[in-house]
Amino acid sequence: MTSNFTRLILPLFVWSMAAPQVRGQIFNLGKEQLIRYTAQNPFDRFPDGRPKVPDALLEKLKDMSAEEVLGLNQRGFRNQWEAGWQILHPNKILVGRAFTLQLMPARPDVSGVDQAERRAKNQIPLNHQTAIDGLQKGDVLVVDACGVQFGGVIGDNLAYYIMKTTGAGFVIDGAIRDIRGIAPFDFTGYYRAAVPPAIHDLMVTGINVPVRIGNATVMPGDVVFGDPEGVYFIPPSQVRDLIDEADVTHIHDEWTKKKFDEGKYVSTDIYSRPHDPALVQEYEAYLKEKLGAQRYEEYRKRRAAQQPPARRGQ
């Protein structure tokens, strides 16, 4: 059975080959299409339809860890994580909104159609810098670059531009170059290898379209979360709940260490959850005090909704 995504993308490619007047359709989703495929986004959007998760929530994510984002798995989003990276400044957390770029091995009969049209309009050739020019503050450039054999997608000059423009960083499923020039910059990036040659034999086939990064599917506007263990691509619809759950985890860990400091308990008395009713009551009171009454009730409702239904007696 053909998926909705295939029914959307395949005709765009075929039409671009058959009818140059709609050439732009191969390189980006229209606003209505992007809204359709990110319909669960609860936040504002950029003018092109890309979800715009608020800066305040992005700031809160910077205090989280990959283990706290793991809750995506329980929510059905099991293909949003990718590991095995080389990391620029792994002590820094990468957080921002995905701006996606899809590259494919070059075919002159495909790329030539669009380049001829751009020349006729006195436009510069379409290449990876076309996407880089579209970056905004808080964006993370996310590039499907087909591996490392096609040269470095960015070097020190473009890396510097990305740093100054976005204040965030990049995720490149491929290579970069000029690593000694990039290393001093005060931002972070994820890449597969550093190589001497510049990018070559690749063509742009999508800007702000769904891309595959390793085993993850990335939509424009996803929140990119990278730490030393790897990168998560978080759907905007899941961000607020993940942050709320992380707050509970922080309070739980704080209380756990306080009880260990008392020196009266073995680990299984306290962690991962106390068994003694008095300790359970103490922890719940501590959690309610730290969260506040309203957020505590919201937490209780979320927890109840996550519990499996009780089995009837046989």
What does the model show?
- A hairpin with a 2-residue loop joins strand 10 and strand 11.
- The longest helix is centred in the last third of the chain and has 26 residues, at 236-261.
- Helix 10 crosses helix 12 and helix 12 packs across helix 13 (293-306).
- The protein contains 13 helices and eleven strands.
- Strands 1, 2, 3, 4, 5, 6, 7, 10 and 11 form a nine-stranded mixed beta sheet that branches. Strands 8-9 form a two-stranded antiparallel sheet.
- It folds into two domains: 7-235, Ribonuclease E inhibitor RraA/RraA-like (Glucose Oxidase, domain 1, 3-Layer(bba) Sandwich); 239-306, no CATH class.
- With 314 residues, the chain is α/β, with parallel strands linked by helices.
- The protein has helices spanning 4-18, 31-37, 55-61, 66-69, 71-74, 108-120, 128-132, 156-166, 179-182, 236-261, 267-270, 277-291, 293-306, and strands spanning 81-82, 86-88, 94-105, 139-152, 169-176, 188-194, 202-207, 211-213, 216-218, 223-227, 230-234.
- The radius of gyration is 23 Å and the shape is elongated.
Write the layout of secondary structure elements.
Blueprint: H1 4-18, H2 31-37, H3 55-61, H4 66-69, H5 71-74, E1 81-82, E2 86-88, E3 94-105, H6 108-120, H7 128-132, E4 139-152, H8 156-166, E5 169-176, H9 179-182, E6 188-194, E7 202-207, E8 211-213, E9 216-218, E10 223-227, E11 230-234, H10 236-261, H11 267-270, H12 277-291, H13 293-306
Parallel strand pairs: 3-4, 4-5, 5-6
Antiparallel strand pairs: 1-11, 2-6, 3-7, 3-10, 8-9, 10-11
Helix pairs in contact: 10-12, 12-13
